[in-house]
TrEMBL record:
Alphabetized SUPFAM superfamilies for the sequence: alpha/beta-Hydrolases
Protein's recorded name: N-myc downstream regulated
Family statement: Belongs to the NDRG family.
Annotated InterPro entries: AB_hydrolase_fold, NDRG
Annotated signal sequence range: none
Length: 369
């Protein structure tokens, strides 16, 4: 005798609990690369479920480590995305929490070398495709990864990405940053605060003091000053980024108060607008701290355009309405999600979007009537 059918609402709740449990899984790996030395990797989510998930590869900015993206992923506005995704967070050499100083004979890799070596991480973890999510120097690294390995990259979300080499003035200023032995001097700290938050730090954010204090605490306690200096020097000796040659879709994000907003605008101006979209967020310097909900919404829209996270509902959209497709049936009515298709199957990435020749329009956002 067959068992009675499970009520759809009960089935959805079970799947929701399962996704939530999977999203809480966290593992760390030490992965040796060809030219970049050992990279410490933190994985959020269950990679054994990657066929049903969006997989993000993150690289952090100067003066921080993977915790900056981990904090963002753990924020409430990212809950729906987090439960349907896996995140592979990369710590560049010597930037894991409480790392010792890199050896004096260790040649810190260039941004180009770091980007090219990231494919080793994917191979080690048996990951086929990723969405790149990077900030500042990390965005530059991921852009170079996308240029070198477009077949492994479904798209790039780049926050405050710089496309040009460091200017003479920029290089001249950083030569006078004070790095006092094993401590970050005031000049170095001021540079990193400016690089991260801009002239007005975090704008109108009421938590700006706490955010800055947390940044300073992490900079002085969990990060090795000598290694931080190496990443800064690598960033300052970066080469031009030929992003107009990129074959994958790109979302550029910057804040109006970011010191790199004009640099991002120039980068966008020189790219193929069929592939590259730019978003500027008002009253924001550090967009991950100032406007996490706007960043999360932009990530979701971008991923939907790549055939990912299709079951995640945009804010203000009726969940039942969201599962109606734009194509109708023979009678002109919208076609509903099949009863035989679970939420997990609906979330399964549409790898046909890997034919990265046409940038399909993002699906329209329907509002309640």
């Amino acid at each position: 005798m067959s068992s009675p059918p499970i009520h759809p609402n009960l089935q959805q709740r079970r799947e929701s609990f399962a996704r939530r449990a999977e999203s809480l899984i966290e593992r760390k790996y030490a992965i040796s690369t060809d030219k970049s030395g050992e990279l410490i990797i933190t994985v959020q989510g269950d990679l054994t479920q990657q066929e049903k998930r969006a997989v993000f590869l993150t690289v952090h900015d100067l003066g921080c480590n993977h915790a900056s993206f981990q904090d963002f992923v753990n924020s409430p506005c990212m809950t729906e995305i987090k439960e349907r995704s896996c995140f592979i967070h990369v710590d560049v050499p010597g930037h894991a929490d409480n790392s010792g100083a890199l050896s004096d004979n260790f040649a810190f890799p260039s941004l180009q070398t770091l980007g090219e070596d990231l494919v080793t991480v994917l191979d080690y973890l048996h990951v086929k495709y990723v969405i790149g999510l990077g900030e500042g120097a990390g965005a530059n690294v991921l852009a170079r990864f996308g240029l070198k390995h477009p077949s492994r990259c479904l798209g790039l979300i780049l926050i405050n990405c710089t496309g040009s080499a460091a200017t003479v003035l920029e290089t001249f200023k950083t030569k006078f940053i004070s790095w006092k032995g094993d401590e970050v001097g005031q000049g170095a700290e001021d540079f990193l605060l400016y690089h991260k938050f801009g002239h007005q730090l975090v704008g109108d954010n009421p938590d700006k003091e706490k955010i800055v204090q947390d940044f300073q605490s992490r900079l002085h306690s969990t990060l090795n000053s000598k290694n931080v200096k190496q990443y800064v020097k690598t960033f300052m000796t970066r080469k031009d980024l030929p992003l107009k040659n990129c074959k994958v879709d790109i979302l550029l994000i910057t804040g109006m108060l970011s010191p790199y907003s004009t640099v991002v605008e120039k980068l966008h101006k020189d790219t193929d607008k069929e592939k590259v979209t730019m978003m500027k967020i008002e009253r924001a310097g550090d967009v991950l701290a100032d406007a996490p909900a706007k960043v999360a919404q932009s990530i979701l829209l971008f991923c939907k355009g790549q055939g990912l996270l299709t079951s995640v509902v945009m804010p203000g959209v009726d969940r039942q309405r969201a599962f109606s497709t734009s194509s109708g049936g023979s009678n002109g009515e919208p076609r509903r999600l099949s009863r035989g298709m679970s939420m997990e199957e609906y979330d399964k990435p549409n790898i046909r979007r890997l034919s990265i020749t046409v940038n399909d329009q993002l699906p329209p956002i329907q509002s309640k009537k």
